[in-house]
Prior knowledge:
With 536 residues, the chain is an alpha/beta fold. It has helices spanning 11-20, 30-33, 45-50, 56-59, 66-74, 140-147, 155-194, 201-205, 212-226, 232-253, 289-298, 329-341, 359-371, 457-474, 480-489, 522-535; strands spanning 82-88, 127-129, 314-320, 346-349, 375-379, 397-398, 401-402, 407-413, 435-438, 442-446, 450-454, 492-493, 497-500, 503-509, 518-519.
Amino acid sequence: MKTIKTIATSAFAAVLLSGCGGSSIVSTPVENIDSSPLKVSELTEAEAHNWGHLDLVKDTIPGMSVDRAYTELIKNKKGKKVIVAVIDSGIDIDHEDLNENLWTNEDEIPGNGIDDDKNGYVDDIHGWNFLGKGYDEQLEFVRILVKGDKNDPDYARAEAEYDKEYETWVNRKKQYDQFYQVITNTNNTLKAHFGKDDYTKEEVKNLVTDDETLLQAKQMAMGMYGNGLESIHVAEKEIKNAIESINERLNYNLNKDFKGRVNGDDPEDFSTKYYGDANVKPVKKSESHGTHVAGIIAAVRNNGKGANGVANNVEIMSVRVVPNGDEYDKDVALSIRYAVDNDAKVINGSFGKSFSPHADIVREAIAYAAKNDVIFVHAAGNDSKDVDTEPNFPDDNVNGKEISDTYIRVGALAPSYGSKMVAGFSNYGKQNVDVFAPGASIYSTTPENEYDTKGGTSMAAPAVAGVAALVRSYYPNLSAAEVKQVILDSGLAINRKVIVGGNTADVRPFADLSKSGKMVNAYNALIMAAKLSAAK
């Protein structure tokens, strides 16, 4: 569930456009939560890199009190190893901050080309890759149109979605190409004048000239600086990356003629399931989503390297399923079953789509996970929509009835307590979103021993998966269903009104955006789990 940085919505882009034409256990008394002070100062670098682990009361940041939980509750306790399956794009299993927390299939002999454990997947040492060498794929509604079955109940909706999306992205490409040309010209003019690439804001501000081209470049740069931009170079890089993403959307995701499936399997033939290969790593560096998600859950804590995962005592199982485009229902269903059959106790699914032709087989897999005592954590989606009225898959609903008591759907919080605490991109739903957790501006691992900040409900889901793994590690006698209920009941109930979907005209009580009306809190979850465990 990847997002593209929509620079068109930022302040400096506007300048370019004008220039171009339920529980009583809480970490603070309940009556004081809503009077917690609003943080008005900028986050320090340390806070920005770790905000999801901070404490609302202590730090005035809507984190999950993870660091407090380690310091006060589990510092001297020994937990049990928990396998967490990350169903996503590839994971860089060689990453310095992840490689010691990988799941290894002890029943397989690496590289011998034999299915030693006879599970049907040859040499699946750290997981399985259902995509093979593939990565780029169409969106699901494009596949529906390519099939051309006008009797398909989704066909008309798919056609309308395609027309809207194609026009949006064609227009966005024109806009961003224009942005890029202007900012590149501005940057090149200023670099030539100063004779260096790393000119500063102060140098531009103090520039005095009668040269019309140079004066125009100064005015453009100062306009961008005035709207919060610190570096023209950063803006140029971001726009270039955005254009690459837009081109991918048009050339692959929305291209009716593109053929993406390269693993030799027919996604409509459900009689086959042993396809793909054991290489769970990304096919290219930009395939970073799965690595980032894995780090949120399981980056080695306090090792002096880039990020801290939420959970210790975890082993990450990599299941490569999510392409640059929409995942196939068949791959998702098989990946859930693979994770369950190989002893995962928590599954994270940071992916989703609005069309799912075979939603029934995915729901059957979700029910299979529940039956086998496995938690499935799913990202709510990044469309600023109400998923009670607009579909988002995979879900656990059949005619309004939940088929799993271990499925958790997660919306995203931003690092700003108060009216702006719900991330503008986050989906929501009083019936079909369970909780909210930190998801905007999350710092985590990326391929080749690097780190980056990304945002999305894709980042909120693994935060909750990490809390689920913590609870299952320290209180293994609790069932998956009990752990889900602990997470929902132990969250902080916020009575504030918040901006919904990034629309300042849409302000509602935070409690109306999810079933629990709460934000996840690891500290409270562990306290509640301890009491429930002791009572069993």
